[in-house]
Amino acid sequence: MLGKLIKHEFRALSRFLLPIHILLLVACLIGRFMFQAMATMDLPNVILIVSFVFLISIWIVVPCATSILIVVRYYKSLYTDEGYLTLTLPATRGQLLFSKAFAACVWSILDLAIVIAGLAIVVIIPQVYQNSAEALNELEKALEMSPSLFFWSTVGISVVGCFGNVALYYFSVSIGQLLSSHRVLGAIIAYFAISTVFSVLMLIVMFAVGYDPFLSASSDSLATTAFLSSYKASAIICVLETFLFFGGTYYLLKKKTNLN
Q1: pTM assigned to the model
Q2: Residue 42: phi, psi to the nearest 5?
Q3: Who has greater pLDDT, 125 or 171?
Q4: Would I find Transmembrane helix among this entry's keywords (predicted)?
Q5: CA-to-CA distance for 239 and 170, rounded, in angstroms?
Q6: Tell me: the pLDDT tens digits for 32-68?
Q7: E strands in the chain
Q8: Of the candidates 141, 172, 190, which is a domain's last residue?
Q9: 188 to 10, 62, 174, 192: CA distances (angstroms)
Q10: Which domain holds residue 205?
Q11: Total domain count for the chain?
Q12: Do 181 and 224 have their domain in common?
């Protein structure tokens, strides 16, 4: 039964998410050709500005749309009229939650990978190759660490964050449904309240491990060490958050489900 539930969730999400991510990649390919053409042709600056703004907008809108669709899918399938049918399936609440979370987390990671791939499509052009060594050296000086280390550390914490984000979405929706009215508003308030609390906690931990985002360390090695320590601490907190939020969501789904 679990396998069928997971397949169903992937179908439900992919119906909307697949087209918008294909659109993102197509837009990035068009952007790549535009920027290459601008490097060899004398085109008006307004075309460059419009193309740049369009690509930035796409990179912002697609991840936001992915998050919104994940939340809407979870809410509609469990806490609206559709929830009556979902909860009568021969599956435990744990299986229902796992199937939805698994599909949502996979799509969140795919979203991250496709956004990075789209950025690479646009940026990695011959004109960039010519100045890549100099640019990487300047980036290394600015970061006070290897650009590759910074990139993969950021990707790693982002992947961990995908799980934490989905868990927080589900937990917020589950809190919102405890209200007799204005459930969507309640879920939104719960999301921002919990996000604020954990953001402050994350900042406190960063300072506690010796990383000050507003000041530079006294040497490259110290900066790198402090940076990695902050990322490790952030990853640990994110993992704890994920278990906490999914655990809370499971409890509310099993004990406090209110479809009235």
Answers
A1: 0.83
A2: -90, 85
A3: 171
A4: yes
A5: 15
A6: 887 777 767 766 767 777 777 888 888 899 999 999 9
A7: none
A8: 141
A9: 25, 20, 11, 6
A10: 144-259
A11: 2
A12: yes
The rounded distance, in Å, linking the Cα atoms of 222 and 188 is 40
Are 237 and 148 found together in one domain? Answer: yes
Task: Among 141, 174, 209, identify where a domain stops.
Answer: 141
How many degrees, rounded to 5, is the angle at CA 218 between CA 160 and CA 237?
Answer: 20
Residue 227 pLDDT exceeds 70: no
**How many Cα atoms are found within 13 Å in the side-chain-facing hemisphere of 69?**
25
Residue 236 phi/psi, 5-degree rounding, is -65, -45
> Can you read off the two tokens belonging to residue 137?
């050296």
Total residue count of the chain as it appears in this document: 260
Residues 55 and 136 in one domain: yes
Burial class (CB in 10 A: 0-12, 13-18, 19+), 196: exposed
Q: How far apart are CA 206 and CA 177, in angstroms?
A: 34
160 in the same domain as 31: no
Same-domain status, 1 and 125: yes
One domain, residues 24 and 102: yes
CA distances from 140 to 22, 148, 187, 224, 251 (A): 33, 9, 42, 11, 46
Residues 123 and 166 in one domain: no
Structure tokens at 224: 């790198």
Within this chain, do residues 148 and 218 fall inside the same structural domain, yes or no? Answer: yes
Tell me the one-letter amino acid at 81. D
| Cα-Cα-Cα-Cα dihedral sign, residues 26, 119, 112, 70 | negative
Residue 77 tokens read as 């399938």
Which band of pLDDT confidence, cut at 50, 70 and 90, is reported for residue 194? Answer: very high
